[in-house]
Design a protein that fits this description.
By secondary structure, this protein is α/β, with parallel strands linked by helices. It has helices at residues 12-23, 44-61, 71-87, 94-113, 148-151, 156-159, 171-181, 202-210; strands at residues 3-7, 27-34, 65-69, 118-120, 126-129, 135-138, 162-163, 215-218, 224-228, 255-260, 265-269, 275-285, 296-301, 308-315, 321-330, 337-342, 345-357, 362-363. Helices cover 26% and strands 29% of the residues.
Length: 365
């Protein structure tokens, strides 16, 4: 039996994960994280409702319940990062950042200081014990719900202390189990938006932080085609919302190819110029704890629920890798996370710094 902190969000996944810990005989404390304080942009009622639902789950399961205020840490480590990356013309992944710095960073360290042996969450992924004291992160059994991509930023020291009770189950099984156990969140719908932007309007949220930063929308030759209110309102691959003054000469739609925040420019062009065949990414987190020989074969995924692409990976130095894909990936932005897999096993993760096409000699950095 171990002493485990269970992160309870107020959703069905964390509720069932907590219940399974009890079934396994662990001593469990349910902890709800306060990651934001109410402001004019943050709905106090929504925050209170989530905390109350988490408390009701703990009460139903008969486990101690606590709330830990990590709002200042979340602001500094996630929100400031999110804003800064968009201001620099990059497209960040705040969920992966939160996992590394907050949920399995500050939260896990505090739990260790208080004498807990590990931290459990309702993420869909599997942790497999490897040779010696190593551990491996693998995809979940329910591939459409797999969250190994946003957990790939964790290192061995973190993964050794993480418990993921749902990795071998499907979402349908988890919901059915929650209903059978009489958990009050069994039928609760899951949110598909960022926790700090529940209405999904990222551009409006960023404008509240950055204000208007107007500039030009240009083609690849530099010709001005329109105006914008901030490069942060766009991402590579975007088609809608460009509002160009005139159509392209070939009559085909234009897509965002790149962002130059320093020049306040959004660069647009034809879809085929979004085809990327080489990525340079870093710093690298060797999630598996093993650095493969080079070059090595892997599959790369650049979006949370995106396609995998066969690739050859070469280490450029201690910090960066070059990833050459066999077939082009459409629309990759600097700031996105590249996760390398070998089968279901996560090998490594790294932030994309350059996404370049050998076909059209363009890049999106």
């Amino acid at each position: 039996m171990a002493r485990i902190v269970a992160g309870v969000s107020g959703g069905v996944d964390s509720a069932v994960a907590t219940a399974r810990l009890l079934d396994a005989g662990h001593e469990v404390t349910a902890v709800h994280l306060v990651l934001q304080h109410a402001t004019e942009l943050v709905d106090a009622q929504r925050l209170l409702a989530a905390a109350e639902e988490a408390r009701r789950v703990a009460e139903r399961l008969g486990v101690p319940f606590e709330t830990w205020d990590l709002a200042d840490d979340f602001e500094a480590q996630v929100l400031d990062y999110f804003v800064g990356e968009y201001a620099a013309g990059r497209t960040p992944n705040p969920c992966a950042r939160c996992n590394r710095t907050i949920k399995f960073g500050v939260f896990l360290r505090r739990a260790q200081v208080l004498g807990y042996d590990g931290l459990a969450t309702g993420h869909y992924a599997r942790i497999v014990r490897a040779a010696g004291d190593g551990v491996e992160l693998h995809r979940a059994a329910d591939l459409p719900k797999d969250q190994s991509y946003v957990l790939a930023v964790l290192g061995q020291d973190q993964l050794r202390r993480v418990v993921l009770p749902l990795g071998g189950s499907t979402k349908a099984e988890v919901r059915a189990e929650a209903a059978k156990r009489g958990l009050p969140v069994a039928a609760k719908a899951e949110s598909m938006d960022l926790c700090f932007i529940p209405d999904g309007d990222t551009a409006r949220w960023l404008q509240g932080r950055l204000g208007a930063v107007p500039g030009d929308i240009v083609d690849e030759s530099g010709e001005v085609l329109g105006r914008h209110e901030g490069t942060y309102r766009y991402t590579v691959g975007q088609r809608k919302g460009l509002n160009l003054r005139r159509p392209a000469a070939d009559g085909e739609p234009r897509f965002v190819l790149g962002l130059d925040a320093a020049k306040r420019q959004v660069v647009v062009g034809p879809r085929e110029h979004l085809a990327v065949t080489r990525l340079v990414a870093g710093p690298v987190v060797w999630t598996s704890g093993v650095t493969p020989g080079e070059p090595f074969a892997a599959s790369v995924q650049v979006r949370a629920h995106g396609e995998q692409y066969p690739a050859t990976v070469t280490r450029l130095d201690d910090e960066q890798v070059q990833i050459d894909v066999r077939s082009p990936i459409i629309g990759v932005a600097p700031g996105q996370l590249a996760v390398l897999y070998e089968g279901t096993r996560v090998v490594a993760s790294a932030t994309i710094n350059l996404a370049a096409s050998q076909l059209f000699n363009t890049n999106t950095c």
